[in-house]
Amino acid sequence: MIDPRLDVIDKRLEPVGRIIPVSSAKGGVGKSVCAALLAQSFARQGYRTGLLDLDFQGASAHLLLDVELEFPEEESGIKPLRTGNLDFMSFAAFSRERAVPLRGSAVSQAMLELMAITIWDPLEILLIDMPPGIGDEIFDVLRYLRDPEFLVVTTPSSLVRHVVERLLAMLSELGVSMIGVIENMVRSDTDSQTAELASKYGTTVLGSIPFVEGIEDLLAAASRGKTLPDTLANTVRSVSARIASAGTNDNGPSSG
Ligand code: ADP
Prior knowledge:
It contains ten helices and eight strands. The protein is an alpha/beta fold. The protein has a single domain (4-246), classed as 3-Layer(aba) Sandwich (Rossmann fold). The relative contact order is 0.19. Adenosine-5'-diphosphate binds at residues 24, 27-33, 60, 184-185, 209, 211-212, 215-216.
């Protein structure tokens, strides 16, 4: 049976340019932090940017971006919340701080529902903070969203690398478009093998985000207009430039 929401989702995403899921096979590697840093960076450079938190069970992007979770405004659908110059949507806008113990296909249903009711204004870039894992969450995005371009977050830890390798192998087997790998929580003395890992799967490392004590507070402050420390800001800007230039017809930000 055909799910009518699929057509609705296509229509909802018509004003959206690039759809970029930020994923990692493992939780706790900084996927949400990287998605939030990149979203802020793109928005600051003048790209019309949205961030969609699909990590239903561990939704945290609103905390990182210091978004006040109001119930979204309704108008034949719901409008994203706005934080600074970023459009933001999260299941947390509805669940607030309640636990939402969704199982199996209920997660897919919740994602479909959220995608079908959210009315995005025109965006150049929609980043998606993905749930961890290499199961339904990835297949749902591949099935329901047009031309997703994956970013994969890893850390220098060999344990994380092993798990992330499974995600890279799967994405490459499926022929999914991959922009590249971001290495997060890098300390100056780290000797990682992330470059080798990326090239094994035909992709590259877009940059290494340093380990920065108190990064959550810095992100929240940046949402209120403060600037990030130089080394962090420069690295994120350089990663975002590489993501922008990976777009087939990037003409730079529309404003800013
Ligand atoms: P994930 O989305 O992959 O589960 P999070 O983005 O929630 O991971 O990050 C997990 C933890 O690691 C959080 O406490 C976050 O503040 C911390 N963290 C993430 N990236 C960094 C970083 N570059 N420097 C310092 N701490 C970080």
